[in-house]
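My main concern about presentation is that the manuscript never shows what a single data entry looks like. In essence, backbone conformation is discretised, so a fold becomes a row of integers matching the chain in length. An entry of this sort, consisting of the sequence and the corresponding backbone structure tokens, reads as follows:
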Amino acid sequence: MLKIKIGICFLFITCKMLAQENRNYNTEIDQWSIARINALKADNGWLNLVGLYWLNEGNNSFGTAKSNSIIFPKGSIVANAGTLFLENQLVKLTAASGVAIKVNDKIVKTTETVYSKELEKSASMSYGSLHWTVIRREDKIGIRLRDYNSSLVKTFKGADRFPTDSNWRIEAILQTPANSSTIPITNVLGQTIQMKLLGKLLFNINKQTYSLDVVEEETALFVIFGDLTNKKETYGAGRFMYIPAPDSSGRTVIDFNKAFNPPCVFTPYATCPLPPKQNILPIPITAGEKNYITH
């Protein structure tokens, strides 16, 4: 009888501990989702983008008038606000007379250089709630326009997610290449760049081994992947994940509950990379963020 009572007590304590672990894990994923929403809504997030304009060599007039080379959203700025001059990957801004455009928080009085190969980053240009910077994608140079008063920032509550399931938190081993290597990554513009390959993550799902090529982004591993939920529950061009750096033995953990949508889900003004063919898993990954239709 005593052994039965001890066994029941042990089972009760074990179940209670497991339940607490599940609650803690659910809380962790909920907090991750809140942080994700806050990042999307931040000034440098993706929800306030309202334009992406590629520059032509020479003068590019901008404003809300239809006669401009670059037409800003209606009511966001004056009809003829100024020009952006592009020559040999150098961009200069000239504001129209009486238009208080700022470059790095200072009103432009003459012509200002806002982008060159030598600059560490593009200058920040602004007018009212509008902010824009120069971006470069291979041979294309353009400006990315943000509106800090974007209605989407105010109304966004987050993307739907699959129910949190700790079974999608999977141990993996990073298999590093013997020599320095790269993999081609193509973006939605059709441009292909070579990115440094950190290695191949090997993991098991239902006793079947799968792999994902990973690239480096700051201190974490970055994965662009697709699966059989794409174009159905999730975005058609795949999702992203950050994975903790492995320990000395190459072990880490893939948490598919933290799989998230690329920026192109939320705005047409992003230039998202697409998953390489070897990263399209032949199974459905029913974890992480689902699709979010805004455009």
Summary: The radius of gyration is 24 Å.
